[in-house]
Design goal:
The protein is mostly helical and 200 residues long. It contains 9 helices and no strands.
Length: 200
């Protein structure tokens, strides 16, 4: 039983590396099994299919991110949480699953999770649009909201791909959020406040 768990773990780690490198569509079960040091038949024995292996790699991260965004959006809209608190929670979760997040958001074309990025973007758009409308924005400018959300997703992915420590990642996330809300002057105000706080 312990040996089976070891083989499963090796296959999952090899699959994560292969999906990250090649994306779901081009990922090779032969490459995955070779990297894990087992036969290709082992993939089918332990997981049944490439699709099930993909789920084994990304489902935990997908569930965590999806739940976080649903709850975060509701809390932010009701005033129970701030945008900064939600940004921190989101980036902390991404920091726990950096490879899986990149796979889900950039490498999942033609996979069982191909719609995941659009679902995440739609959840973020809902929150962005609510605040946009409260600030007097026109709902016809929904394309602007889509651009802002895509920019935020790209920034988050860019940030986690650099593999900074969690403290640095959270710090930059807060500054990017301040920049997004107030432009450069708002970001710099937050930047100087954070420096002052850390010096005390």
């Amino acid at each position: 039983m312990e040996k089976d768990m070891d083989v499963r773990q090796k296959l999952k780690l090899a699959a994560k590396a292969e999906f990250l490198k090649s994306g779901y569509q081009k990922a090779s079960l032969r490459h995955i099994s070779q990297a894990a040091g087992v036969s290709t038949g082992s993939v089918y024995f332990f997981f049944g299919s490439k699709e099930e292996l993909f789920h084994a790699v990304v489902d935990e991260a997908a569930d965590a991110l999806h739940t976080l965004l649903i709850n975060g959006t509701e809390k932010e809209l009701s005033g129970e949480a701030t945008g900064e608190e939600n940004d921190r929670a989101f980036i902390e979760t991404l920091h726990c699953y950096p490879e899986e997040a990149v796979i889900l958001l950039e490498k999942a074309q033609d996979s069982p999770m191909a719609a995941f990025r659009n679902e995440i973007v739609a959840l973020l758009e809902k929150g962005f649009m609510a605040f946009f409308l409260r600030a007097g924005g026109d709902p016809k400018d929904d394309k602007l909201i889509r651009l802002l959300v895509e920019q935020r997703v790209f920034a988050m992915l860019s940030l986690i791909s650099r593999r900074y420590d969690l403290q640095t990642t959270v710090r930059y996330t807060v500054l990017l959020g301040a920049y997004g809300e107030s432009g450069f002057s708002g970001m710099m105000e937050k930047y100087h406040q954070m420096k002052k706080d850390s010096a005390e």
